[in-house]
Amino acid sequence: MLTGTDAVRIVPGGLTRVAMKEGSLVVNSSQGGGTKDTWVLDD
User: Fold this and answer.
1) 13-22 per-position pLDDT tens digit
2) CA 11-12-14 angle, 5° bins
3) CB 17 within 8 A of CB 35
4) How many CA atoms lie within 13 A of 33 on its CB side?
5) Whether 15 contacts 36, CB under 8 Å
6) Residues 40/12, Cβ–Cβ less than 8 Å
7) pLDDT tens digit string along 21-40?
8) What is the C-alpha to C-alpha distance for residues 38 and 31, in angstroms, rounded to an integer?
9) Residue 2 neighbours by CB under 8 Å, 6+ apart
10) Which of 6, 27, 31, 34 is the most exposed place for a label (fewest CB within 10 A)?
11) In this predicted structure, what is the pLDDT of residue 41?
12) Cβ within 8 Å of residue 28, ≥6 positions away
């Protein structure tokens, strides 16, 4: 979702869970994982 002074737009995309440490498989945010924005460029 993008917000501006005069409009709100819903755009395709979301969040992807990721391991923040290189080589780690942990994506749980309480155990050191995180999220990154995910953009859909073409359907």
Assistant:
1) 888 899 988 8
2) 105
3) yes
4) 14
5) yes
6) yes
7) 888 888 988 888 888 888 88
8) 21
9) 8, 9, 11
10) 6
11) 81
12) 17
